[in-house]
Amino acid sequence: MRCLTGKIKRIGAVFLTVILVSSPVYGISVSEEKKLAKEFVASIEKTGAVIKDPLANAFIEDLGRCIVANVPPQPFEFNFRIVDEDRFNAFAGPGANIFINRGLFTSLDYIDELAGILAHEVGHAVCRHVSQMIDRSKFVNFGTLAGLLAGILVGVAGGGDAAQGVIMSSAAAGQTSMLAFSRENETEADQKGLKFACDASFSPKGLLTGLKKIRDNDFFGTDAIPGYLKTHPGTKDRIVFIQRWMEDHYREKKEKPLIDPFRFEVIKYRLTGLYGNRDEAERSLAAQLKKEPDNGAIHYGMALVLIRKSRFDKALFHLDRAAATRTMDPLIRFEKARIRCMSGEYKKALTIFKDLDTVSELAPFVSYYRGIALLETGSAGEAEKHFSRLIAGDDILFPRAYYHLAKISGEKGDQGTCHFYLGLYYNEINEMKNCCYHLQQSLKQLHDPEKKARAEALLQKCRKKFTLRKSS
User: Fold this and answer.
1) 104-122 pLDDT, tens per residue?
2) Cα–Cα distance between 224 and 221 in angstroms, integer?
3) Is the whole-model pTM more than 0.90?
4) How does 139-159 read in b/e, with b if 16+ C-beta sit within 10 Å?
5) CA 378, CA 361: separation in Å to the nearest integer?
6) Does the chain have fewer CB atoms within 10 Å around its N or its C terminus?
7) Higher model confidence: residue 345 or residue 239?
């Protein structure tokens, strides 16, 4: 397969300067960008917008690794994440942090489209366009800038009150207008992205058709948002550029894809079924099934949305259809066990859960629901082991595990630990008043010095948050 090498022919004067520029112009230093990247990622994660789904995250990271495998050594480590936003967008943040919104991901039809869009964002990172953009903006305070970028890229409301205030301030309009990639940046990222997609054995047609979907939905889907908040200008011109490039350079690929395209479909419909609006997701999936009645991934997505609606019999029907069309055994068996658990059939659920620990991405889900089933069948000690495993890391996938641990501690008569876990639970779900109350109670009764120190530190933070909310 022939990929982009050397100079590209002149395709209109608008592209000439960018195509002939071979050495990038950097803005802020690598060390400055690393510092900003850390604060930026923290700001995004504070919004709660990043999807914490081990299956989806493993897929997007594997796809990202395929794309960057042939990229020259970079000063940053690439990270790929999915944002729980309906808006059509994907963006490269500081420090090679690549994000794609759920709404854009689930609108795509082929893995090549997703690969093309991610490859384009990798192009931005390789050319250090974010660094140049930040340098143009002349922001001095990286903390403010990190929140502002999070607000712009995740969605205005998602960046927090401070970021929203900066964005909406008329005095900041001049600076925020600089926080967008130029048309030249976009063309250069397309140029790089086409090569990266080709090198990873994906078709560059994916970037073309993906861009057409983006154009048709105008990214954010509304004219009410100022143009300077749109991160990808010149979509129409870019489509023309890619079409001309493909005419001159592309030949159909013969290589097998590095990632099974069916895996893309499974994750796409998983995101639709688990995270999309329930009614809209059901309508969309029903329409898809009329076109592709034997598509197991769509049946799987439909089962997930029906589980959210507690329509378990219909969900089981779709799970059986999914299993009949293509092997998805661990996923199907887990959802059947989850249905049994949610229906109160805990012993049946435990029977199914027995052999599901072997799939690493499923392990947190299995531990949580297995813990519930064990707790409800009188095996509190075994349940405690599962819930304790879930809260061992920094990234808590199931905050309610704290609630169940509180229940187990209370039943053992350990009121200090019970209040401690309730405090952690209410902190995770942002109920600061309840968090403060339970942490205060825990400090009166706790004997474990480690838990006591943690409760004291968290109580101080919760009091600050609670005071700020009351004052606002």
Assistant:
1) 999 999 999 999 999 999 9
2) 9
3) no
4) beebebbbbbbbbbbbbeebb
5) 27
6) C
7) 345
